[in-house]
Write a structure and sequence with these properties.
This protein is an alpha/beta fold and 321 residues long. It is built from 14 helices and seven strands.
Length: 321
Amino acid sequence: MSAPGGPLHGFDAAATIDRLASETVEAVRGLGRRGAVVATSGGIDSSAAAGICVRALGADKVQLLRLPERDVGDSSSDLALELAESLGADSVEEPITAALEGLGCYAQRDEAIRAVFPDYEPSWKHKLVRSAPSASITVFSLVVERPDGSREQRRMPADAYLTLLAATNMKQRVRKLREYTWADRLSYAVIGTPNLLEYDQGFFVKGGDGLADIKPIAGLYKGQVYAVARELGLPDTIVSRAPTTETFSLPQTQEEFYFGHSYERMDALMWGHLHDVDPADLVAEVGLSVEEIEAAYAEIERRRTATAYLHAPAVLFAREA
């Protein structure tokens, strides 16, 4: 079976913004909150979510937060400040480096990296990358950049990979702590910023960026988020920026870390899978072979299975009579 069109076919960004703004107002009121807190990184998703909230609630009822840490630097915070100025909303910067240092985030990270590169020094830049999409399992490798600019990539053993992931997940959880602290202070709702790809495929941290009161763009493909951002008139520096993970000290795309495909191709693959489109009918759209599209469909299902735990609510046992 095939379905005509695609994620952007017939997509009306202006009407979508009106709908999401109306639903945001209803959701905030339904929760008994007075406004919204949005942590902004200068990325397209958090920027679009912030723009929708300002449209819905007014700039005076939206508190934006900038929560940088030393691996990422100040560039994202600078973009987020530009966003706040364009929206007319208040923005506060609260660096989280000291908190992460105290929690042992960087020490645990360095321990994991030295399991792969024993001579690693904390000043070296680094990132995590995945294997190319295929019908086989995904494996992860660590890339380090030495002071002389040379780079080396080595596959990560499972223990080192999990240790590194656990350490870096602290960044998202500490940010969320600050968001809810501000939300409590203002009696505001916390806004989540995952798009459809991230939400469906579990590209978030449980108790971190996966935690929120309202997730206004979780039903939008990435390309639709960009269309919404352009319709909102967000700064070109943000709308033209490539998606990043904002996690490691070396520049890292979401493609090389998680999805294995560009967001444009991933949108089309997800749309095709959700609409039961025959891989043969998607070849021209995505530029892959039938076999590669079949492998992509299978990986979409594998990720859903592997990340089901992230979506699962707490397990409650029966109350005693």
